[in-house]
Amino acid sequence: xxxxxxxxxxxxxxxxxxxxxxxxxxxxxxxxxxxxxxxxxxxxxxxxxxxxxxxxxxxxxxxxxxxxxxxxxxxxxxxxxxxxxxxxxxxxxxxxxxxxxxxxxxxxxxxxxxxxxxxxxxxxxxxxxxxxxxxxxxxxxxxxxxxxxxxxxxxxxxxxxxxxxxxxxxxxxxxxxxxxxxxxxxxxxxxxxxxxxxxxxxxxxxxxxxxxxxxxxxxxxxxxxxxxxxxxxxxxxxxxxxxxxxx
Length: 247
Ligand SMILES: C[S@@+](CC[C@H](N)C(=O)[O-])C[C@H]1O[C@@H](n2cnc3c(N)ncnc32)[C@H](O)[C@@H]1O
Description:
Blueprint: H1 3-17, H2 23-43, H3 46-53, H4 61-71, E1 79-83, H5 89-98, E2 111-115, E3 126-129, H6 137-147, E4 152-157, H7 167-188, E5 189-200, H8 205-213, E6 216-222, E7 233-241
Parallel strand pairs: 1-2, 1-4, 2-3, 4-5
Antiparallel strand pairs: 5-7, 6-7
This protein binds S-adenosylmethionine.
Protein backbone atom coordinates (compact mmCIF):
# COMPACT_ATOMS: atom_id res chain seq x y z
CA UNK A 1 0.00 0.00 0.00
CA UNK A 2 1.46 3.38 -0.92
CA UNK A 3 1.93 6.19 1.56
CA UNK A 4 -0.97 8.22 0.21
CA UNK A 5 -3.40 5.37 0.72
CA UNK A 6 -2.16 4.78 4.30
CA UNK A 7 -2.52 8.50 5.14
CA UNK A 8 -6.02 8.58 3.63
CA UNK A 9 -7.07 5.56 5.70
CA UNK A 10 -5.68 7.00 8.95
CA UNK A 11 -7.33 10.37 8.41
CA UNK A 12 -10.75 8.94 7.51
CA UNK A 13 -10.72 6.43 10.40
CA UNK A 14 -9.63 8.97 13.01
CA UNK A 15 -12.17 11.44 11.61
CA UNK A 16 -15.02 9.04 12.19
CA UNK A 17 -13.70 8.06 15.62
CA UNK A 18 -13.67 11.66 16.85
CA UNK A 19 -16.79 12.67 14.92
CA UNK A 20 -17.95 16.18 15.81
CA UNK A 21 -21.24 16.28 17.70
CA UNK A 22 -23.57 18.51 15.76
CA UNK A 23 -26.42 20.63 17.13
CA UNK A 24 -28.80 18.05 15.66
CA UNK A 25 -27.10 15.24 17.54
CA UNK A 26 -27.22 17.27 20.74
CA UNK A 27 -30.89 18.08 20.44
CA UNK A 28 -31.76 14.48 19.63
CA UNK A 29 -29.71 13.35 22.66
CA UNK A 30 -31.48 15.95 24.77
CA UNK A 31 -34.75 14.74 23.33
CA UNK A 32 -33.92 11.15 24.21
CA UNK A 33 -33.10 12.25 27.75
CA UNK A 34 -36.31 14.25 28.12
CA UNK A 35 -38.36 11.42 26.60
CA UNK A 36 -36.81 9.05 29.14
CA UNK A 37 -37.63 11.51 31.93
CA UNK A 38 -41.20 11.82 30.61
CA UNK A 39 -41.55 8.04 30.43
CA UNK A 40 -40.31 7.39 33.96
CA UNK A 41 -42.48 10.22 35.29
CA UNK A 42 -45.54 8.77 33.54
CA UNK A 43 -44.79 5.30 34.89
CA UNK A 44 -44.57 6.49 38.49
CA UNK A 45 -47.54 8.89 38.24
CA UNK A 46 -50.65 7.62 40.07
CA UNK A 47 -52.89 9.97 38.02
CA UNK A 48 -51.83 8.25 34.79
CA UNK A 49 -53.06 4.86 36.08
CA UNK A 50 -56.19 6.41 37.51
CA UNK A 51 -56.95 8.11 34.18
CA UNK A 52 -56.62 4.77 32.38
CA UNK A 53 -58.82 3.04 34.92
CA UNK A 54 -61.57 5.65 34.68
CA UNK A 55 -61.28 5.96 30.88
CA UNK A 56 -60.18 9.57 30.85
CA UNK A 57 -58.20 10.55 27.78
CA UNK A 58 -55.43 12.03 29.94
CA UNK A 59 -54.43 12.76 33.53
CA UNK A 60 -55.43 16.46 33.21
CA UNK A 61 -58.99 15.31 34.02
CA UNK A 62 -58.08 15.24 37.69
CA UNK A 63 -57.04 18.92 37.71
CA UNK A 64 -60.54 19.98 36.66
CA UNK A 65 -62.21 17.41 38.95
CA UNK A 66 -60.22 18.72 41.93
CA UNK A 67 -60.89 22.38 41.15
CA UNK A 68 -64.59 21.80 40.62
CA UNK A 69 -64.96 19.52 43.65
CA UNK A 70 -63.61 22.40 45.72
CA UNK A 71 -65.33 25.39 44.09
CA UNK A 72 -68.41 23.72 42.53
CA UNK A 73 -68.80 25.95 39.51
CA UNK A 74 -70.05 23.26 37.09
CA UNK A 75 -73.67 22.27 37.68
CA UNK A 76 -76.19 20.05 35.87
CA UNK A 77 -77.85 22.05 33.10
CA UNK A 78 -74.91 24.45 32.64
CA UNK A 79 -73.48 25.54 29.28
CA UNK A 80 -69.71 25.14 29.15
CA UNK A 81 -67.09 26.14 26.57
CA UNK A 82 -63.86 24.12 26.79
CA UNK A 83 -60.93 25.87 25.07
CA UNK A 84 -57.89 23.81 24.10
CA UNK A 85 -59.92 20.67 24.68
CA UNK A 86 -57.87 17.98 22.89
CA UNK A 87 -57.50 15.12 23.58
CA UNK A 88 -60.66 15.63 25.62
CA UNK A 89 -60.39 14.73 29.29
CA UNK A 90 -61.69 18.12 30.53
CA UNK A 91 -64.59 17.74 28.12
CA UNK A 92 -65.31 14.27 29.53
CA UNK A 93 -65.37 15.76 33.05
CA UNK A 94 -67.49 18.74 31.99
CA UNK A 95 -70.02 16.50 30.19
CA UNK A 96 -70.35 14.46 33.34
CA UNK A 97 -70.64 17.46 35.68
CA UNK A 98 -73.28 19.31 33.64
CA UNK A 99 -75.07 16.10 32.56
CA UNK A 100 -74.61 17.00 28.89
CA UNK A 101 -75.02 13.35 27.88
CA UNK A 102 -78.27 13.11 29.88
CA UNK A 103 -76.78 10.19 31.80
CA UNK A 104 -78.94 11.12 34.78
CA UNK A 105 -82.54 11.49 33.68
CA UNK A 106 -83.49 13.28 36.91
CA UNK A 107 -81.06 16.15 36.36
CA UNK A 108 -81.11 19.12 34.00
CA UNK A 109 -79.21 18.51 30.77
CA UNK A 110 -76.32 20.85 30.04
CA UNK A 111 -74.26 21.62 26.94
CA UNK A 112 -70.53 21.41 26.32
CA UNK A 113 -68.74 23.01 23.34
CA UNK A 114 -65.14 21.93 22.87
CA UNK A 115 -62.65 23.69 20.64
CA UNK A 116 -59.04 22.94 19.78
CA UNK A 117 -56.44 23.66 17.10
CA UNK A 118 -56.08 19.91 16.84
CA UNK A 119 -58.57 17.24 15.99
CA UNK A 120 -60.77 16.10 18.88
CA UNK A 121 -62.29 12.65 18.62
CA UNK A 122 -66.04 12.63 19.38
CA UNK A 123 -67.22 12.65 22.98
CA UNK A 124 -70.80 11.74 23.70
CA UNK A 125 -72.68 14.84 24.87
CA UNK A 126 -70.20 17.41 23.55
CA UNK A 127 -70.29 19.57 20.43
CA UNK A 128 -66.82 19.34 18.93
CA UNK A 129 -65.07 22.13 17.04
CA UNK A 130 -61.76 20.59 16.05
CA UNK A 131 -58.96 22.04 13.93
CA UNK A 132 -59.87 25.59 14.95
CA UNK A 133 -57.66 28.21 16.50
CA UNK A 134 -59.63 29.74 19.36
CA UNK A 135 -57.89 33.11 19.00
CA UNK A 136 -59.22 33.59 15.47
CA UNK A 137 -62.34 35.72 15.06
CA UNK A 138 -63.79 33.18 12.61
CA UNK A 139 -63.49 30.36 15.20
CA UNK A 140 -65.18 32.42 17.89
CA UNK A 141 -67.91 33.25 15.40
CA UNK A 142 -68.40 29.49 14.83
CA UNK A 143 -68.65 28.98 18.57
CA UNK A 144 -71.15 31.80 18.88
CA UNK A 145 -73.26 30.23 16.14
CA UNK A 146 -73.07 26.81 17.81
CA UNK A 147 -74.21 28.33 21.10
CA UNK A 148 -77.31 29.48 19.27
CA UNK A 149 -78.17 32.13 21.84
CA UNK A 150 -77.36 30.08 24.97
CA UNK A 151 -75.51 32.13 27.56
CA UNK A 152 -72.37 30.50 28.90
CA UNK A 153 -72.08 29.42 32.55
CA UNK A 154 -68.40 28.49 32.41
CA UNK A 155 -65.51 29.00 30.03
CA UNK A 156 -62.64 26.68 30.90
CA UNK A 157 -59.24 26.86 29.26
CA UNK A 158 -56.37 24.41 29.54
CA UNK A 159 -54.89 25.90 26.34
CA UNK A 160 -51.14 25.91 26.12
CA UNK A 161 -49.14 27.28 23.20
CA UNK A 162 -46.50 25.12 21.54
CA UNK A 163 -43.29 25.59 23.50
CA UNK A 164 -40.72 27.78 21.75
CA UNK A 165 -38.02 26.81 24.23
CA UNK A 166 -37.75 30.46 25.26
CA UNK A 167 -39.40 30.58 28.67
CA UNK A 168 -40.38 34.24 28.61
CA UNK A 169 -41.91 33.98 25.14
CA UNK A 170 -43.93 30.89 26.14
CA UNK A 171 -45.26 32.73 29.18
CA UNK A 172 -46.26 35.75 27.08
CA UNK A 173 -47.99 33.46 24.58
CA UNK A 174 -50.05 31.71 27.25
CA UNK A 175 -51.05 35.06 28.79
CA UNK A 176 -52.22 36.12 25.32
CA UNK A 177 -54.42 32.99 25.20
CA UNK A 178 -55.83 33.79 28.68
CA UNK A 179 -56.85 37.31 27.61
CA UNK A 180 -58.45 35.92 24.49
CA UNK A 181 -60.52 33.57 26.71
CA UNK A 182 -61.39 36.38 29.10
CA UNK A 183 -62.62 38.68 26.29
CA UNK A 184 -64.74 35.89 24.83
CA UNK A 185 -66.16 34.89 28.24
CA UNK A 186 -67.08 38.44 29.20
CA UNK A 187 -69.03 38.94 25.98
CA UNK A 188 -71.01 35.70 26.06
CA UNK A 189 -71.40 34.72 29.72
CA UNK A 190 -74.45 34.70 31.90
CA UNK A 191 -74.49 36.56 35.23
CA UNK A 192 -72.70 34.49 37.93
CA UNK A 193 -70.78 32.48 35.33
CA UNK A 194 -67.22 31.28 35.88
CA UNK A 195 -63.98 31.42 33.92
CA UNK A 196 -61.00 29.13 34.47
CA UNK A 197 -57.69 29.74 32.72
CA UNK A 198 -54.36 27.97 32.82
CA UNK A 199 -51.11 29.87 32.77
CA UNK A 200 -47.50 29.56 33.78
CA UNK A 201 -46.67 31.69 36.79
CA UNK A 202 -44.92 34.84 35.59
CA UNK A 203 -44.71 38.59 36.03
CA UNK A 204 -48.10 39.03 34.37
CA UNK A 205 -49.98 36.76 36.80
CA UNK A 206 -50.99 39.56 39.16
CA UNK A 207 -52.21 41.79 36.33
CA UNK A 208 -54.30 38.98 34.84
CA UNK A 209 -55.75 38.20 38.27
CA UNK A 210 -56.67 41.87 38.73
CA UNK A 211 -58.20 42.08 35.26
CA UNK A 212 -60.31 38.97 35.88
CA UNK A 213 -61.41 40.60 39.15
CA UNK A 214 -62.83 43.54 37.18
CA UNK A 215 -65.51 41.19 35.79
CA UNK A 216 -65.82 38.38 38.37
CA UNK A 217 -66.61 38.88 42.06
CA UNK A 218 -64.47 35.98 43.31
CA UNK A 219 -61.02 35.32 41.94
CA UNK A 220 -58.70 32.58 43.13
CA UNK A 221 -55.33 31.26 42.08
CA UNK A 222 -55.49 27.49 42.18
CA UNK A 223 -52.83 24.79 42.05
CA UNK A 224 -54.53 21.38 42.19
CA UNK A 225 -52.58 18.39 43.53
CA UNK A 226 -52.80 16.77 40.10
CA UNK A 227 -50.74 19.67 38.70
CA UNK A 228 -47.11 18.64 39.03
CA UNK A 229 -45.37 20.46 41.88
CA UNK A 230 -42.28 21.11 39.74
CA UNK A 231 -44.35 22.82 37.04
CA UNK A 232 -44.98 26.58 36.92
CA UNK A 233 -48.55 25.78 35.89
CA UNK A 234 -51.31 27.48 37.86
CA UNK A 235 -54.96 28.21 37.20
CA UNK A 236 -56.97 31.36 37.81
CA UNK A 237 -60.61 30.81 38.59
CA UNK A 238 -63.04 33.70 38.38
CA UNK A 239 -66.55 33.08 39.74
CA UNK A 240 -69.72 35.13 39.90
CA UNK A 241 -69.49 37.08 36.67
CA UNK A 242 -70.83 40.58 37.31
CA UNK A 243 -72.33 40.98 33.83
CA UNK A 244 -71.64 43.71 31.33
CA UNK A 245 -73.30 47.06 31.80
CA UNK A 246 -74.70 48.20 28.48
CA UNK A 247 -75.06 51.98 28.54
C1 LIG B 1 -52.77 20.62 27.73
S1 LIG B 1 -53.64 20.40 26.26
C2 LIG B 1 -55.30 20.36 26.81
C3 LIG B 1 -55.68 19.08 27.47
C4 LIG B 1 -57.19 18.98 27.68
N1 LIG B 1 -57.64 19.95 28.67
C5 LIG B 1 -57.60 17.63 28.16
O1 LIG B 1 -57.88 17.49 29.34
O2 LIG B 1 -57.65 16.69 27.36
C6 LIG B 1 -53.53 21.98 25.52
C7 LIG B 1 -54.29 22.11 24.23
O3 LIG B 1 -54.38 23.48 23.87
C8 LIG B 1 -54.51 23.53 22.47
N2 LIG B 1 -54.30 24.90 21.97
C9 LIG B 1 -53.21 25.68 22.10
N3 LIG B 1 -53.39 26.86 21.49
C10 LIG B 1 -54.65 26.84 20.99
C11 LIG B 1 -55.44 27.76 20.25
N4 LIG B 1 -54.95 28.96 19.90
N5 LIG B 1 -56.68 27.42 19.87
C12 LIG B 1 -57.19 26.20 20.20
N6 LIG B 1 -56.49 25.27 20.90
C13 LIG B 1 -55.25 25.58 21.30
C14 LIG B 1 -53.47 22.53 22.01
O4 LIG B 1 -53.72 22.13 20.67
C15 LIG B 1 -53.64 21.42 23.04
O5 LIG B 1 -54.48 20.41 22.55
